[in-house]
What we know:
Number of helices: 17
Strand content: 15-25%
Helix content: 40-55%
Bound molecules: zinc ion
Structural class: alpha/beta
Radius of gyration: 21 Å
Number of strands: 16
Shape: globular
Amino acid sequence: MSQFNFKITQKLPGTLARAGEIHTPNGVVLTPAFVTVGTKATVKSLTPEQVKDLGAQVVLANTYHLYLEPGDEIVRGAGGFPKMMNWHGPTMTDSGGFQVFSLGVAFDKKVSKLAKVPQGGVAEAASESALVLPESEDEEAHKAKLAVIDDEGVTFKSYKDGSEHRFTPERSMKIQWNLGADMIFAFDECTSPIAPLKYQQEAMDRTHKWAMRSLLAHNELDTEKVQAVFGVVQGGRFEELRKESAKVLAEMKTPNGDMFDGFGIGGSFEKEDLGTAVKWVNEILPENKPRHLLGIGEPEDIFLGVENGCDTFDCVAPTRIARNGALYTKQGRMNIRNAEHKTVFEPIEKDCGCYTCKNYTRAYLSHLFRSEEMTGATLASIHNLYFINRLVADMRLAILDGTFLEFKDAFLKTYYRS
Ligand SMILES: [Zn+2]
């Protein structure tokens, strides 16, 4: 008997938006919900108590990173990543596929910016580009390639030291079992938005085979069914493929009758197409299972995702941009490093209820960032996570009282004005 279920509390007529509850062995997630990313089993610059106080309900850690360091067996020895990091609440891990492909195959000049990111930020930077290119005829490109895909799995080189590793669906499931999250993802191939149709089709078919193998492998490990497994919809920017992927995964069933507990929507999107692409998929996926939009989480994107039927969102953006001094405000992003803030003795936002805004001025934050003090990253991360969690909580309330579309229009009107 699965220890996991999803209930819809309220649907918003005329849209695919819904408010619901995901029940896990470690607590309930009220949806829509923003999932805080703790890549290496830590939310950078914050303690788990701070993360919880900011309204976070779920923490997601990255399989790829924890596999490489400290290693999933060590994490299992510590009782799983939630226990190791002292997070008491629902958790997720991704499949590792995204980083393997985006870091491993990032040989193209367009993604060479990865190499310039300071240590510690490498993998996160990659998660924004997600470029996986199809087999190239270019010999130089082949030489530089760090990941090789075959039908069984992927062989890749570590971004840390170049050592060789191999992920298969079975391996990803074993690692995620060791990491011990409540919600885990089937191993998938993440493709570039510029990959041609033929390649997207092949990659999608492979992802579907890997999805079935992931389900079968997980059932062997998790006999008590303490983990929920989400299948990952792929298909790139192609409508037919996205719809086919949603249908195949929605109906996928093992000989024992096991099916996916929820779904992830993976791959990269052109920003303008996000709402449409998500809608194609969510019109097909079963209504009674949760849908997670992988790696997307800017305020304007979350509105589109929620309106088109997604329940949860994870993104490194709030904390990553915070460490660079970029702060969310209702008038758009503010860069605290700009000279204009040096003498402003007012909070980031006067009506923000976060610890940072209640106690500190822009002038102080500006000083911390200019003098490269660590506390700057902490205070900025506190504001951004509070902002995004509160925004998504407000979206939930607006679905419940039927005012979501008005709330969205009002928010985006001032947010885009800047
Ligand atoms: Zn604030």
